[in-house]
Write a structure and sequence with these properties.
single chain, about 500 residues, mainly beta, 10-stranded antiparallel β-sheet, 6-stranded antiparallel β-sheet, about 35% strand
């Protein structure tokens, strides 16, 4: 082995040290790059050369070479932002992105995402983030696909349940023998006089097209002459009621042109004289479309699946809409007991008001010695809404908040992991691609199968440690300097060899 081989050993050292400095320089250059993962250069020796020695054959090293440049997928710290679509992964996994109209997939930890003009959920390069579409129950639909908002509106939903929890003043007196008779649907200005009832409460409901309608419940205490008095077990603690809407909104053909147009349900609400809590309800409706002026056509109302009496009306022409009324009592049987009057015209002492097996709810109507008031009211319908904002939870579920108060689950962001993530190919722009060494991507939802969770309004910073890089820079510089010294020393030795012949 000649002395010149030492030159090549020194050159190999210079070569790998310069490459190591390139790795360090790239790390430092990307100290503020979102989602960047630093790399580490490792060295290995070159196959040694055998030489003869006094004790036999030995080996002399021939220098060094670059072993690997390994990415370090250590978690970077999180940076809070004001953008709800900025996402960071806490734990293992990569976001999956794909160029538009291509089947190629790339993987990234840089979660600076936003929606483009076409509704695609994209990164800064325009690659579409992959995930699953969700149904109304939050279950995924179909396979992993590009996240794209196709609609920025929430469709309306017709009201199916109306809740009205009231307190009716126990000291009140009767104002009318019949609320039903006091109503005049042909008077569009004031269908019922203020002096005809003791209390009223109004709630807005929605039809199938998202139009709103005011539904008003009128209450009045019974007296001995009231139309329900003969069938009431305790008239002194019973109130009659009618459920009404604007007559112009009532499109049932059988009610058109009648004084009863706008009356949706009628009946009574009874209270326990000791506790003041609601104890029973009677409810009659004319859902058959028959002549509403005939008392016999107001028959026992049906029950909803929750045990509340219900009526059927038409706010949209030809479209039946069934709405239940919750006053704080529910029927556990969902049927009327035998022996009660089958219709309003049949109410007598021998055929009393129909009853059921009632169960009080957590909130129930009351009859206390206090001013009549509405304690709680709500309904389950809503009109159309427009998308106001997007939010993402820790499971990657993307929800839309709409102007109609609805929060709908839209998509779930997908994540991927690999058997050997350090073998991934760096393709630039904070993107990685899979290869045979890394293995195929193992996809799943955040928080499952070893994948990390999502932090919204956050970005993962570069995991470059400046202090470590500066130390590596010093040792690399010294290594480069030492190898250059080997070359200059060998040069001196060669010069001495040449000078021998002089």
């Amino acid at each position: 082995m000649g002395i010149s081989s030492s030159l090549y050993s020194g050159i190999s050292g210079l070569d790998v040290m310069s490459q190591a400095m390139g790795v360090i320089g790239s790390n430092i250059a990307n100290v503020n790059t979102i989602g960047f993962k630093s790399s580490t250069a490792t060295f290995q020796d070159v196959l040694a050369q055998s030489v003869a020695t006094a004790s036999g054959t030995s080996q002399i090293g021939r220098g060094t070479q670059l072993g690997t440049i390994t990415p370090q997928f250590v978690q970077g710290s999180f940076q809070s932002t004001s953008n709800a679509t900025d996402l960071a992964i806490g734990g293992n996994g990569f976001f999956i992105v794909s160029p538009k109209n291509e089947n190629t997939e790339f993987y990234t930890r840089a979660g600076g995402f936003n929606f483009d003009s076409a509704g695609n959920f994209v990164n800064s390069s325009g690659d579409v983030v992959q995930g699953w579409a969700l149904d109304t129950n939050g279950n995924d639909v179909g396979t992993l696909t590009g996240i794209k908002l196709n609609s920025f509106t929430s469709p309306p939903s017709a009201t199916t349940q109306l809740t009205a929890i009231t307190n009716l003043n126990s000291t009140a007196t009767s104002n009318s023998t019949s609320l039903f008779g006091a109503w005049n649907g042909q008077d569009s200005t004031a269908p019922i006089a203020d002096t005809s009832y003791g209390y009223s409460t109004t709630e807005k409901v929605y039809d199938s097209q998202g139009n709103s309608h005011d539904v008003t419940i009128y209450y009045d205490k019974l007296n001995a002459a009231s139309e329900y008095a003969s069938g009431a077990t305790d008239p002194d603690n019973t109130w009659q009621y009618i459920v009404t809407c604007n007559p112009a909104d009532d499109l049932r053909t059988g009610f058109a042109g009648t004084a009863e147009q706008g009356i949706l349900m009628r009946g009574t609400l009874s209270f326990n004289p000791t506790t003041g809590d609601a104890s029973s309800i009677s409810a009659f409706s004319d859902d058959s479309g028959a002549d509403p002026t005939q008392a016999a056509n107001w028959t026992q109302a049906s029950f909803s699946s929750t045990g509340d009496p219900e009526f059927t009306t038409q706010f949209v022409s030809g479209v039946n809409q069934t709405v239940s009324i919750d006053t704080g009592l529910r029927s556990t049987s969902g049927t009327w007991n035998a022996g009660g009057a089958a219709n309003v015209g049949a109410i007598t002492a021998l055929a009393p008001l129909p009853t059921s097996t009632w169960q009080p709810e957590a909130q129930t109507s009351t009859q206390y010695a206090a001013a009549s008031s509405t304690n709680y009211q709500t309904q389950d319908g809503y009109g159309p809404g427009f998308l106001n904002s997007i939010s993402v939870d820790t499971n990657g579920v993307m929800s839309g908040s709409y102007s109609n108060g609805q929060i709908l689950k839209l998509f779930q962001v997908g994540l991927a992991k690999f058997n050997d993530e350090q073998a991934l190919t760096d393709v630039g722009n904070s993107l990685w691609s899979a290869n045979s060494a890394s293995g195929a991507a193992i996809t799943g939802s955040p928080g499952n199968n070893g994948l990390g969770s999502i932090s919204a309004d956050s970005l993962e910073q570069s995991n470059v440690d400046i202090a470590t890089e500066f130390v590596n820079m010093i040792t690399t510089q010294r290594g480069y300097e030492a190898n250059s010294k080997v070359i200059t020393t060998v040069d001196t030795m060669l010069q001495d060899l040449i000078n021998i012949i002089r």
